[in-house]
Amino acid sequence: MQVTRDRTIHIVRYADETPSIMSLAYKIFQVIDKNTLNADFLMLYFLRPEFDRLCWFYTDSSIRGSLDWVKFCNLEVPVLSIDIQEKIVNIYNLH
Fold it and tell me: Whole-model pTM?
């Protein structure tokens, strides 16, 4: 995942229930336990400028500043209680 040029990681949430074909060039992951993690909350976390800066910090030293999948998977995401996650998502959706 390239970070340096744009100083951001482009992450998209596919919320449609219709099955789709995705390119093998992209990593795809899903929330397995919806009672523990709200996918919209996770997406909001990924959209934070602080998350982009964290990813940029962990990039390799190449000219393109890539963040490999293993490093990405080792990043810690704070998981609040599901009730608080849902409240945050609801507040965000009001705006």
Answer: 0.74
